[in-house]
Amino acid sequence: MASGNKENQVLSKIVINGKHGENSPYFDGWKAYDSNPFHPTKNPQGVIQMGLAENQLCFDLIQEWIMNNPKASICTAEGVSQFKYIANFQDYHGLPEFRNAVANFMSKVRGGRVTFDPDRILMSGGATGANELIMFCLADPGDAFLVPSPYYPAFVRDLCWRTRAQIIPVECHSSNNFKVTREALEEAYNKAKEGNINVKGLIITNPSNPLGTTMDRETLKSIVRFINEKNIHLVCDEIYAATVFRAPCFVSVSEVMQDMENCKKDLIHIIYSLSKDLGLPGFRVGIVYSFNDEVVNMGRKMSSFGLVSSQTQHFVAALLSDDKFVNKFLAESARRLGARHNHFTKGLEKVNITCLPSNAGLFFWMNLRGLLKEKTFEGEMKLWRLIINEVKLNVSPGSAFNCSEPGWYRVCFANMDDETVDVALKRIRAFVGKETGKPPLELKRWKSNLRLSFSSRRFDENVMSPHMMSPHSPMPHSPLVRAT
Amino acid sequence: MRLLSTKATCNSHGQDSEYFLGWQEYEKNPYDEVLNPKGIIQMGLAENQLSFDLLESWLAKNPDVAGFKSDGKSIFRELALFQDYHGLPSFKKALVDFMAEIRGNKATFDPNHIVLTAGATSANETLMFCLAEQGEAFLLPTPYYPGFDRDLKWRTGVEIVSIQCTSSNNFQITEPALQQAYQDAKKRNLRVKGVLVTNPSNPLGTTMSRSELNLLIDFIKDKDMHLISDEIYSGTVYNSPGFVSVMEILNERSDLNDCGTGASVWDRVHVVYSLSKDLGLPGFRVGAIYSENDVVVSAATKMSSFGLVSSQTQYLLSAMLGDKKFTKNYISENQKRLKRRQRNLASGLHKAGISCLKTSNAGLFCWVDMRHLLHSNTFEAEMELWKKILYEVRLNISPGSSCHCTEPGWFRMCFANMSEDTLNLAMKRLNTFVQESNHHGCTKKRVQSSASSRRKSLSNWVFRLSSRDHRDQEER
């Protein structure tokens, strides 16, 4: 057989088409990090990872809870009586206590202003699985979803790859802080219609990745009105809901629905996960919450392809049913995120680097338009490579998020310890000083405080030994595995 | 404009399937030794509940694992953050070692070629996404696991074409049957991308013979297509002949060592595994795809993002399966218990004048011959008998038609998801039923209905069952 035929024989089109999205130049930042990762003592000149939207600020709280609640594990002496039942439990309805606990938690995150029905909760393989699942339920191959830009890069994979749906960006601009306007929605919608594209819905991320902002009530209402009028679905990815650290409060679409008359509930669906709010991406807890009965019914059957491990369901059920812990965690997590965000952004202000004013998320949207040699995306990429190779920070360029304007970068701040933050700040300041010709500010104060003995577990030799998880692993870690 | 996708709406029928009744009736009236001794005994669930004590005692001896500790140090944070779709290296190593151990080390597996997925359900679907698409088909020998209709076809658009196997040779795959299936696909304008077999077989409870495996390899070599071997029951083989994995056969064949078409066969054979049956851990959602084809591994790895295994679970199992003393003891003890239990079932059935497939040597179930109890050689009669067994004998068993069997009268009965006492009670009830039926002079003669009505009933039945609600996953 000819080799051309051979390729056809081996793989399906969706594999060959490469819509998994991992071939973008965006991958370069990861390569740079993987081949030269920062370590406070072993590799202080290495690349600092600031492209990873992880929440590492509150593990101590969860760890403490685990130690005090051995029954949450089916492996401990206290919990092993449940082992057999849990290990055997593969019902795609999920453990009732898991659904109840998640519904309760989701409500708390929204200040108790809405309640959620545990029977509408579907499990999925993380938010990644949830987003794909909802698309399989709502869109046929070729159908389109509108997505406000800038948006999370892996949406291309999650929403389009195996579903063969397509996404149509709705452009947002810095002129109004990247708000989603009715005009922009109409424009994108109409353009699609003209091109004979069947628009099935709109997906928004609120709080936004990469902007770190929450959507205001009026914008949300306008969006709900828009989808109602066009009779298209609204998928609200609310996975950052509990990362709001400053006013304004988070307003969920579920709250807005309550206030609006004639709102077609059947069109509205929420995506949730514990990866950001609780910092547990490894546990793969994704949730689809739909107000549409048919979607719940069908989606539940589809969830067979990515159920949450019953061991994890059991653990999460115990954790999130502990009201005292949840209340304490939510408050403390917000406080720490706010403090970290503040420290970083204030530090940048000292060298006249501004960020989009934000109140949520694990990152901020940094404005380096002033440093671009050319106000183009090539200029943005050039600056980005400079930042990676010389400043040794892996930040994410706005173009990776399909931003319509060059010069913006997403900087993650919750995936490192305080000392690393200061190293990063120092490097940025030095770099900006060089770029703008201004001398770096006097940094005596922090220098004398810089300690070389880091207490963070993350760098503990034993823990990072090859058998567990090596930063120097020969296998490159895909950006889309963790660039979330 | 239709509000939901075609996929979301196409399966809405099938909820009236009579087969579904079995599950409903069970839920309404589940047997309990103390609370409901007259209730329905569940024998439609291919679960392995025989060896939990071994797992529990291992846990008791390994408290570190419970507290997210490794060598006394907390690794909670690292596990919480670990979402690399390449999987936990220590878990993959432990898993491939376990797979090799089950195969008596006659086949070994490279951890870099294994892809972790959320159960075998996800593994099978993922392989379909990688290897085929709408307008294409995989050939499957009947009878097969009902869940394949969902797992292989639903969201992928791929079709299944049956390789018809019959009791005349204990349902083994034959060359004519393979060729016929291939032609059937052609007639339906479907391009055949490969063959998928379950070895050991569900629902037959038998291991595939060497000659069948060689036949399959000859076939896919000749037709330039894939072979997927779902080996999720590989650790449940309790009798001779032992388990022979397709990987073992590949190793043995010299015609596959040369360059050219032979070598590429290695690129087209893929194994699916899971810990749901061998270890009895279906809740943990641990599945795997193994392939020597780098491109498939790479694509499947990316796709596994949609259903990764919880790091918490990967860690627990890496410790457990990494304990070679434990695995050695578990594998042999588990097999002993399965053997004993199957013997109980077989002898209980025998007393009632019912036989199992005589080649039964694996799985968590037996393929039981009740053809002589049908009043006609039709699927209607099979349905009638099934309902009698459900309502009068109060046993929920799986009728062969739900597995796409082409001959009426065969049933799958599970034996590893209940206590020994419960199994004995089930056998007693069945025996009573058969004696009473004999006493009342029910005819044992099979009425030969016309071939066409048999075909008609088959297609209707299959149609009703091909899109069924909810308990599918639990039937494995």
UniProtKB/TrEMBL annotation, chain A:
<feature type="domain" description="Aminotransferase class I/classII large">
    <location>
        <begin position="48"/>
        <end position="428"/>
    </location>
</feature>
<dbReference type="InterPro" id="IPR015424">
    <property type="entry name" value="PyrdxlP-dep_Trfase"/>
</dbReference>
<comment type="similarity">
    <text>Belongs to the class-I pyridoxal-phosphate-dependent aminotransferase family.</text>
</comment>
<dbReference type="GO" id="GO:0008483">
    <property type="term" value="F:transaminase activity"/>
</dbReference>
<dbReference type="InterPro" id="IPR050478">
    <property type="entry name" value="Ethylene_sulfur-biosynth"/>
</dbReference>
<keyword id="KW-0292">Fruit ripening</keyword>
<dbReference type="InterPro" id="IPR004839">
    <property type="entry name" value="Aminotransferase_I/II_large"/>
</dbReference>
<dbReference type="InterPro" id="IPR004838">
    <property type="entry name" value="NHTrfase_class1_PyrdxlP-BS"/>
</dbReference>
<comment type="pathway">
    <text>Alkene biosynthesis; ethylene biosynthesis via S-adenosyl-L-methionine; ethylene from S-adenosyl-L-methionine: step 1/2.</text>
</comment>
<comment type="subunit">
    <text>Homodimer.</text>
</comment>
<keyword id="KW-0949">S-adenosyl-L-methionine</keyword>
<dbReference type="InterPro" id="IPR015421">
    <property type="entry name" value="PyrdxlP-dep_Trfase_major"/>
</dbReference>
<dbReference type="GO" id="GO:0030170">
    <property type="term" value="F:pyridoxal phosphate binding"/>
</dbReference>
<dbReference type="Pfam" id="PF00155">
    <property type="entry name" value="Aminotran_1_2"/>
</dbReference>
<feature type="region of interest" description="Disordered">
    <location>
        <begin position="465"/>
        <end position="484"/>
    </location>
</feature>
<protein>
    <recommendedName>
        <fullName>1-aminocyclopropane-1-carboxylate synthase</fullName>
        <ecNumber>4.4.1.14</ecNumber>
    </recommendedName>
</protein>
<dbReference type="GO" id="GO:0016847">
    <property type="term" value="F:1-aminocyclopropane-1-carboxylate synthase activity"/>
</dbReference>
<keyword id="KW-0266">Ethylene biosynthesis</keyword>
<keyword id="KW-0663">Pyridoxal phosphate</keyword>
<dbReference type="GO" id="GO:0009693">
    <property type="term" value="P:ethylene biosynthetic process"/>
</dbReference>
<dbReference type="InterPro" id="IPR015422">
    <property type="entry name" value="PyrdxlP-dep_Trfase_small"/>
</dbReference>
<dbReference type="GO" id="GO:0009835">
    <property type="term" value="P:fruit ripening"/>
</dbReference>
From TrEMBL, chain B:
<dbReference type="InterPro" id="IPR004838">
    <property type="entry name" value="NHTrfase_class1_PyrdxlP-BS"/>
</dbReference>
<dbReference type="GO" id="GO:0030170">
    <property type="term" value="F:pyridoxal phosphate binding"/>
</dbReference>
<feature type="domain" description="Aminotransferase class I/classII large">
    <location>
        <begin position="41"/>
        <end position="430"/>
    </location>
</feature>
<dbReference type="GO" id="GO:0016847">
    <property type="term" value="F:1-aminocyclopropane-1-carboxylate synthase activity"/>
</dbReference>
<keyword id="KW-0456">Lyase</keyword>
<comment type="similarity">
    <text>Belongs to the class-I pyridoxal-phosphate-dependent aminotransferase family.</text>
</comment>
<dbReference type="InterPro" id="IPR015424">
    <property type="entry name" value="PyrdxlP-dep_Trfase"/>
</dbReference>
<keyword id="KW-0292">Fruit ripening</keyword>
<protein>
    <recommendedName>
        <fullName>1-aminocyclopropane-1-carboxylate synthase</fullName>
        <ecNumber>4.4.1.14</ecNumber>
    </recommendedName>
</protein>
<dbReference type="InterPro" id="IPR004839">
    <property type="entry name" value="Aminotransferase_I/II_large"/>
</dbReference>
<dbReference type="InterPro" id="IPR050478">
    <property type="entry name" value="Ethylene_sulfur-biosynth"/>
</dbReference>
<dbReference type="InterPro" id="IPR015421">
    <property type="entry name" value="PyrdxlP-dep_Trfase_major"/>
</dbReference>
<dbReference type="GO" id="GO:0009693">
    <property type="term" value="P:ethylene biosynthetic process"/>
</dbReference>
<keyword id="KW-0266">Ethylene biosynthesis</keyword>
<keyword id="KW-0663">Pyridoxal phosphate</keyword>
<dbReference type="GO" id="GO:0008483">
    <property type="term" value="F:transaminase activity"/>
</dbReference>
<dbReference type="InterPro" id="IPR015422">
    <property type="entry name" value="PyrdxlP-dep_Trfase_small"/>
</dbReference>
<dbReference type="GO" id="GO:0009835">
    <property type="term" value="P:fruit ripening"/>
</dbReference>
<comment type="pathway">
    <text>Alkene biosynthesis; ethylene biosynthesis via S-adenosyl-L-methionine; ethylene from S-adenosyl-L-methionine: step 1/2.</text>
</comment>
<keyword id="KW-0949">S-adenosyl-L-methionine</keyword>
<dbReference type="Pfam" id="PF00155">
    <property type="entry name" value="Aminotran_1_2"/>
</dbReference>
<comment type="subunit">
    <text>Homodimer.</text>
</comment>
